[in-house]
Design a protein that fits this description.
Layout (H helix, E strand, L loop, with lengths): L1 E3 L3 H11 L4 E8 L2 E8 L2 E6 L1 H12 L7 E6 L3 H10 L3 E8 L4 E8 L3 E8 L3 H5 L4 E2 L3
């Protein structure tokens, strides 16, 4: 799940420090463009600043804005997941695109009004941690 948080710092403190969701990674492109990825059991919980959300919308969907809450699922094959979702009635918002962080992302408007991103990692976690901007606040 990706959540845009107007008060990014307060949201990170609440979910990470109060609820105990461990920080897996944090990214910053400078200024207010920040995101923290938190461990939520079998899922991750991303808190994105408004600037980061806009940046992701540009990369994933040619700037088409996503809602404040968007669900993201890691898949083995982004293209196949997109086609399967489309066949099941989802509206394709954006076809799979290779992102600057080397994942293949697509976006659909799924049944029940949810916006869903499918992402396929093209690098392993070790390769990703070597990239500029990858890190945590731990």
């Amino acid at each position: 799940m990706v959540v845009e948080a107007e008060d990014y710092d307060a949201a990170v403190r609440f979910y990470r420090d109060v609820l105990g969701m461990g920080e897996i990674a944090a990214f910053s492109e400078g200024g207010d463009d920040r995101v923290a990825i938190l461990e939520a059991g079998r899922a991750t919980f991303e808190i994105a600043s408004p600037a980061h959300k806009v940046a992701i919308d540009r990369v994933e969907a040619d700037g088409i804005p996503s809602p404040k809450i968007r669900i993201a699922f890691e898949v083995d094959d982004s293209e196949a997941a997109t086609r399967d979702a489309e066949a099941a009635g989802a509206e394709v918002v954006a076809e799979p695109v290779l992102t600057p962080w080397m994942s293949l992302n697509s976006r659909v408007e799924a049944p029940a009004g949810l916006t869903v991103t499918f992402f396929e990692e093209t690098e392993d976690s070790h390769e990703r941690t070597q990239r500029d901007g990858f890190g945590t606040n731990d």
